[in-house]
Amino acid sequence: MNKDMIQSLAWGGGIVALALACSLARSLGYLEQETTLRIVLGATGLMIASFGNRIPKKFAPSACARKAQRVTAWSMVLSGLVYAGAFVLAPTMMTAIVIGCGAILTGMAVTFGYCLSLRDRTTAA
User: Fold this and answer.
1) Across 14-21, average pLDDT
2) Are 65 and 27 in contact (CB under 8 A)?
3) Distance (Å, whole) CA 52 – CA 94
4) What is residue 23's DSSP assignment?
5) What's the CA gap between 125 and 113, in Å, rounded?
6) Who wins on pLDDT, 43 or 2?
7) Is this prediction's pTM over 0.85?
8) Confidence (pLDDT) at 102
9) Could you write out the three-class secondary structure of 51-99?
10) First and final CA of the chain: distance in angstroms?
11) Is 42:88 a contact under the CB 8 Å cutoff?
12) Of the candidates 20, 71, 76, which has an alpha carbon nearest to the alpha carbon of residue 45?
């Protein structure tokens, strides 16, 4: 198995283990349901930021691909951190969901828009 696969499986296993531990703590009365949900979803945001941090370390065959990688990495890291922060700091779950999902959708839109602008520039040149 390669290094990326091991890291991805470690993140997935870690989040499952965290969810199980939080579920056990909730059933024993140590955590409330909302706290359990906030912890697991906050960890998911950190996972997104971690994956974004790994993007620039991949090989890119051209300058345009490297530019797209950098923008994608920044948008994933920032949107993942906003997502995690929303679930940690927002006063209500609905606010956290709106802010977190809005951050992820904004990151995706920025990446998609930048890739389209790069494609338009290369076809025009």
Assistant:
1) 96
2) no
3) 25
4) H
5) 18
6) 43
7) yes
8) 97
9) HHHHHHHCCCCCHHHHHHHHHHHHHHHHHHHHHHHHHHHCCCHHHHHHH
10) 41
11) yes
12) 76
- Residue 35: its H or E element: helix 33-54
Core vs surface per residue 96-122: b (16+ CB within 10 A) or e: bbebbeebbeebeebbeebbeebeeee
The pair of structure tokens assigned to 2 is 């390669």
Task: Indicate the helix (H) or strand (E) that contains 15.
Answer: helix 3-27
Two tokens, residue 108: 């995706």
What pLDDT is stored for residue 109 in this prediction?
A: 97
Inter-CA distances, 22 with 25, 65, 67, 74, Å = 5, 40, 40, 30
> Across residues 1-6, what is the average pLDDT?
86
CB 84 within 8 A of CB 103: no
3-state secondary structure of 43: helix
Q: Which residue, among 103, 50, 46, has the nearest Cα to 79 in the 3D structure?
A: 103
